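Anyone? Bumping this.
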Amino acid sequence: MLEVKDLHVTVEGNEILKGLSLTINAGEVHAIMGPNGSGKSTLSAVIAGKEEYEVTSGSITYEGRDVLEMAVEERAQAGLLLGFQYPVEIPGVKNIYLLKAALNAKREAEGLPEIPAPEFMKLIKEKIAEMKMDASFLQRSVNEGFSGGEKKRNEILQMLVLQPRLAMLDEIDSGLDIDAMKVVADGVNSLRAEERAILLVTHYQRLLDYIVPDRVHVLVDGRIVKSGDADLARELESRGYDWVLEESAA
Amino acid sequence: MSEETQHFLDRLADVRAGREAEPTWIAARRQAGAARFEAMGFPTRRDEAWKYTDVRAIARGEFALARDAEFSPASAAALTLPIDTHRLTFVDGVFAPALSTLDGLPEGVSLQPLSAALVENHEAVGGPLGRLTGVEFSPFSALNTAFMEEGAVLRLAPGTVVEKPITLQFLSRRGETPVMSHPRILVQAGGRSQATLIEHHVGEEGAANFTNLVEEVILERNAILTHYKLQEAPLADLHIASIHVEQARDSRYTSFNLNLGGALVRTDLISELNGENATCDFYGLFYGEGRQHVDSHTLANHNAPHTFSNENYKGILDDRAHGVFNGKVVVKRDSQKIEGFQSNANLLLSDRAEIDAKPELEIYADDVKCSHGTTTGQLDEEAIYALRSRGIDRQTARGLLTLAFAGEVLEEVGLDAISERVELAVAGKLPERFNLAGLVEVAVALDDE
């Protein structure tokens, strides 16, 4: 589904990703782990099209399309969706407007008509109940005055409504207490499906107890230095990153 | 005297007929208004206060006075806010009892058309009428005084709290000849009284009438008034309003000046903060399209220490519309410890739209907190990216953020019927490329569940 080949990315002249390669197949859950500053967040941001990143070489291919040639909104419409580590507050734009406009944009790209209002309302109500959110959320401005946990839930709510093909979640667990994390993890797990892939970027193994990944990659200094299954994450939790660093240096 | 001025004064003959029941002072006031108007003439752009607003469309107009208040009840109902309210309705300035709902006014509330108040209650009305907005204020206030015969008088006895809003509805009719009206509104809110006043200007498409309004609002100690002025007049209407508020100690006046309609609109809003802890909040939203001209002048006079004024005006201008914002805060010499905040932001949706924004501070005291600022700006790129990252194209994102910009004023509105109506109107006016059709309705529907 997604193929990243020898990706080099710079931000303001600093090279952050230095030849990263990664293949994600439909149905898989991948976790990217690594110490601070290793470039974890950069990878998902580049795939989603954040503008301050410059790709100097390498390629990203999604379902046969050159992702780097696609506008930000085209990527989202095609099913590449990033849940942000720090979701932006958008004063005055009601959640319900964002959800409806985004869903209709996706449907339009797929050649479907606009969703009829009653069907949309039914869908939304179902999804906010799933995320244990109050209906009043819909009338509130996007993320404005939300707690950290509410913002993260809201990111997942958007995923549940928009049903991406590749859901990328950047540190979705940061700043969450255990109850909020369970709700978020349940939401993510409900997205698991044969035709869908999930890419988790996380600093902590804790999240991976709730969302068990198929593949775990350790990112160090802009490259993937080790890959394994869910056991690798547990090993990192108990032994830290140093042994991976030593192993990769050897 | 100019031909233009004379043309207006000639219409006075229509006012004088059939007013024998009125007290003699009213005729003297009208004469004083006419004399003053005659001496001043219409303002020109050489007058500082009218620098950006050309009133020739009014001066050169030929306006008759309406003779009746006929209006189809069904059409009137379609133009009426869906709010449970006490309402006086006027058609082209003429009181329409059949369209008004006055039953069930609570004790302590007196709401009368001016024509009735001048006959039945003239001693109480004669004193305050014209005290705040005299004939000197502007040529339009003089003209209003010359033609003063209809309008509304609202009086609240001390301690009266009115649950339902009180609405003054002004309907503008499409007719053979354009008409003019000079409504005069007097509000006297006794100590500790509390009320919401909705002033709604609306009408038939194709109408091209001239409304010249003068409102005087007196808030006694601890009185609280929220005043919505929802101006949705037909797009060829001409609309001038002078609103003058006097605030005693501990009183609170909140104004929402929401301007959507009219070809030429000028509002002067002035509050005299005369007693300690008097507070005024001025919220404004204007939307101009086509060749609409919308001018908002506001003035907060901090005449006493420990008084507070707060202002937030937002403008959205498309096509060749022209907006004017002039907000002034004046702090008198001994008015220490006052706070005066003012903010104005404008969005221009087209290269040919224009805004003249001028915030002004005049401070003669030394221990005050004041700030002001005006921006004419761009939308937040970070927010645009956040919306695009969800698949929303740039134009729709811009539309959503423009609606959000208006929303920053509308979220202060305490009456859903008004905020939803204005939001829908703004969404409907935004260019089609913003692709917002159907978006707002869903939120309104959700709210009604």
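Late reply, but here is one note on the structure posted above: The radius of gyration of chain A is 18 Å.
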